[in-house]
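Limitations
The structure tokens in this dataset are predictions for the assembled complex, not deposited experimental models. Users should treat interface geometry with appropriate caution, especially where small molecules or nucleic acid strands are included. An illustrative entry is reproduced here so readers can see what is and is not provided.
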Amino acid sequence: MQPSSASEQPGAASGTRRLVSLIIPMYNEADALDALFARLDAVLPELADYDFEVVCVNDGSSDGTVAALEAHCTNPGDSFTRRALVVVDLSRNFGKEAALSAGLHVAAGDAVIPIDADLQDPPEVISELLAKWRDGFEVVLARRSDRSTDSAAKRLTARAFYRVHNAVADVRIPDDVGDFRLMDRVVVEALKALPESRRFMKGLFAWVGFRTATVEYKRDPRSAGSSKFNTWKLWNFALEGIASFSISPLRIWTYIGLLVASVAMAWGGWIALRTLIWGVDVPGYASLLVAVLFIGGLQLIGIGMIGEYLGRTFVESKRRPPFLVRRVLRSGGLKS
Ligand code: UDP
Ligand code: MG
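Predicted assembly:
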């Protein structure tokens, strides 16, 4: 963690007003924008002890999201949220993880809260997050105590993911906790200092640690539009998480290899013995083929796993930035 100057930690001393940054990644969320800003307008002014900035990251939307954000910036009117608006416009769609990273780099707050644009993370919970922060916690997780608005399939696969991930990975990801959380400036600086360009944020958040508290909330249904994650994307996301935080999938092949070799040796011994006692027995074509295909399949899976990690090393070795910013717009209405 290396803040470059003291001025990067505004208001950290007690007594001064503290700035809180919301980070909202947006990919084609034009339909959800009005409802989002209306809800924030109802919630944020109530939290009068804090200043806010609302960092909206446009993740290469192809609908009217960026035009709407730009209009809000130039015409803030008396909307609290619009006056606190910072728009980070990325050069293309980099994915939610990269969009969050971009938001973390631009956010200036003493605390930072990533929150989805679709109101699935209710802004009312922010006051509870802030209360725990005031108690001295550096990370305050918002845990989905009730996921009944997610489909049964999504709940089941999410559960399976947390199980598998936490069984094999070096860092434990808390169950049912998404990106919605509060992080103190020290945590944000730690995250910014992590060099990897493929960023699985849930894992990175867990990896940095810090004093952590949890509040519970009920996950609401999406306010408008549709989910940006299909089954294939989620599957790849899960693989990304496991491959980023564990080398168990590589190591397991040593054990599988040992097991298969031992079974083959024992079986070979048995065949030799059988031949000595009963003589040569020709049938066995089917079992031979099954064994050959099975071992071939295992080898391909093993090579695939190695390829997964090799690909990752290849991508990291190019040291490309995780995102590119076209421009940052700030609402004229409020200092940020
Ligand atoms: N999102 C993004 N880039 C993407 C996909 C999603 O910035 O490539 C944003 C999206 O606009 C939303 C948040 O990530 O604010 C969560 O997405 P979504 O609600 O579609 O995910 P779900 O809640 O279905 O998991
Ligand atoms: Mg959502």
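Some entries come with short summary sentences. For this one: Confidence is low (pLDDT under 50) at residues 1-13.
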